[in-house]
Amino acid sequence: MLGVVETRSVSPVFVGRTEELDTLNDALAQAAAGTPQALLIGGEAGVGKTRLVEEFATAACREGAVVALGGCVEIGADGLPFAPFSTALRALRRELPDQLAAAAAGQEEELTRLLPELGEASGGRHDEEGMARLFELTARVLERVAADRTVVVALEDLHWADASTRHLLAYLFCTLRTGRLVVLATYRADDIHRRHPLRPLLAELDRLRTVRRVELGRFNREEVGRQIAGILAAEPDPTQVDDIFERSDGNAFFVEELAVCASEGCGTGLTDSLRDLLLVRVEGLPEIAQRVARIVAEGGSTVEYPLLAAVAQLAEDDLIEALRAAVNANILLATPAGDGYRFRHSLVREAVSDDLLPGERSRLNRRYAEALEADPALVPADQRVMRLASYWYHAHSAAKALPAVLDASVEARCRHAYSEQLRLLERAMELWDTAPEDVRDRLRPIDYTEVYPPPLPERRGGTPSGCDPATTPLRYLDLMAEAAVAGRLSGERERALKITKRALHLLEDEGDPLRAAWFWVQRSRLVQALARGDGWKELGTAQELVRGLPPSEVHAEVLSTAAAWSMLREPGPEALSSAERAVEYARMVGAREIELNARLTYGGLMVDAGSVEAGLAEMHEVKDRALEEGVSYVAGRAYVNLAAELDAVGRTREAVALLQEGLVYTRRFGQLDSEAWVWANLSEALYSLGRWDEAADAAAGALRVGHGAKPRGSGAGCLAHVALGRGDLPEAARQLAAARSYLGTHDPMPQHTLPLSRIEIGVAAGEGRLLDARAELARALVCGIPPGTQRYGWPLLLAAATAEADAQALPAAAQGRADALERLREAVKKTTTDTPIWLAHEQWVRAELARAEGRDTTDTWSDVVTCFEALDRPYDLARVRHRLAEALLASGGDDERDRATELLRLAHTVAEHLGARPLADAVVLLAQRARLALKRFPDRRPADPAEALGLTGRERDVLRLVAAGRTNRQIAEELFISPKTASVHVSNILGKLGVSGRGEAAAVAHRRGLFPPGDGDRLIAG
What we know:
10 strands, five-stranded parallel beta sheet, mainly alpha, about 1000 residues, 50 helices, three-stranded antiparallel beta sheet
């Protein structure tokens, strides 16, 4: 356990709070049993939140738990990014060094953003997932540390928390799943006004059933009396209790102040003013001690002793005596580490600070800043830059504040604290005009955010990719570019959008098309993220601006972004051309990441255009290079896109193996959205392979880890697909609605709209709403099925054709049927069939259209079955076998009945295994009508293994060749039969063996010893 928990109360007696302490102890017990706990403790200032946490922490330590305390650090009006988490992790590292090192192994570089002691943080990639990646790693580290011991992380004063701290806490509360961990946070309820930034977080956490709220109320009279007795170490006079209870209104801190004042005789004539109550004991200190208290009040939540000495400029003995007076009066406390001082209660600090004159406050902040500049070692290294920026800003010195604030913004960006970076950059823009010109001229950009171009004059005289930031003056527009990106990455998109609008307005008179194009790309991303449109108008403007310009990183980025946009929405020759030019331009200017990203898009578009092998080879190459070069963003995207393309061309088992590898990679690097896309793609692939339980689990994984709406929408769509296949129409409709809610209507993409329309048609058809199904098809086909989207188009057309065929006998469906079938035929003609899987689907759709008109025959469905027997799609194969059996029974004949029986047995086995109730019920109903038995009841046990399996002589010959790896055509040539007859025999054999594929049939044959050595050339005439 950690050292003695710091106690800041003057009362030795812990009063009341039985129910609240029981809640905390219950949470500790549940955590000890392996269920993580999250608690919020709220109450007005002075009501006793800290004392409750102290009592709980002490009790937890007695139970063997490890307690890590962290407080939100306030400097002026600013909170340090991630301060409470840094403090808590530092405490854990001090107490459990080996365990924390093991939990953070391999991720030290990323976690240094929270805990600098772990090493040097690299710049890394700054993207929408950067902060989420850090959050995910933090959550996993805490879970690992708490895997075999109970850990309590207590974060105090959440009302002062910076935005990044609030976001991280919300993430932990939402995602902690394992470990013996308690995370609790305290906040002042009376500070949370309508516009307080903590208010939305509290509302969000209120909706989580896993978060417990503990609200501390004021003491009643009896509790006040017990508290006063503890402070005075004697039973108080009832009149005194009444007086203090009335004046304190039961606030524990005010009770302490009034009781101490009464015992020290300083309460005479005291007004009822809250400020006066808080200041009365401070004003009773010697003047030099009051002066030191004022200095400490303006220094922040905690002030280090060396810094305080430098600012106070007193003789050491005088300073120590002043501090002793303040500590003895219980105004100040030494910090637990003994390296600084803080007020016993923040209310007193705020009252002292508020009592400072404006000029006095500025002077104190200036002295803090000057002391810190003169000796940076006066404060911890991870706080230095932020505190210096805050001191200079509150000193109202624009010349000093502007450079300091910019340095702090860089520090915030390095820590993925993008909300704080945005706040600091907005502060820099505020200071820009008031800072002296010579100060602005000396400022230099640290780098250029993303691919933001340097100023135009330097580009004209420099290299194609720009100039050296070290020699280029910083401009106001550069601040706006950084702020726009920080706003986008932090989720403050409205603010970012306003910044880009102002920047483009400033650029109207500058004639700088590259910078304008860069800001238009930013607007495109923001418009999409804010659900204001698809972003193409903005991208089109950017393309027009760079057209005809020399190659540059911006040009390459515009082309790459446009190609990626088109791949998802309008794949085709133009998108392919944009991707190809993006690769070329990126190579010219040495923009390696853009090049790899554009090559990945280019490979996917090649596959969509029909160059399957070349496109897949390109994508494999990009994945390998990205992994080798550590370009994690492109590597994560490659796992998603390459697997999707493999599945799209029917190489689903390869896709599953790659996706499982991708899960490990994206989880390791905390790429939450990429991981969610991997889960969603894995769900689709597992569904195709007939592994529906696993598919549902994978879809739930996409919903669980997804950070953005689109991957979560895809996960909900996958769940809807599984529910539809199993006949759970209400659940399918519910998940469909959830998917549509996630995806919205502002940015339609075929990969979302077509699958959801397919499910919509399936649900409508299942509920007997054929007209609704037709209407949904008409809406889906408004934009057609462009080349590259056939993987989504064919299942949609199949669902619609099946719905029409199933309703063929219904009189109500006759009206409008001809138009619906004609619409489907036209769509079939225009939809690409570039691989065996989609050729098979084309055959299937045409067969369903024939069934809808009563024209289907056994030959129609035999061809479809033959196509699907060569594919790894057990559910699809079961469905078409059911249709073939139906056609065979309609044609009559004993041989047809025998074959239909085997087909139905095969289909029923698959349907039962998957839980596909609609298919299973349809098979049973057909078998009942035809009076066929779906189970075999053998009445004897032949000695011959082949006869025991019910195989005829000819079927034994065919099985021998199947076991030898022959195709249907090779079997036909060797046995002098037609390929179709060979296919019929193979289907019958699979049914009799109770297997779903040729490989399984061969395994059964060898296991049963059907073909002993020397039997290879012997055929049995049949």
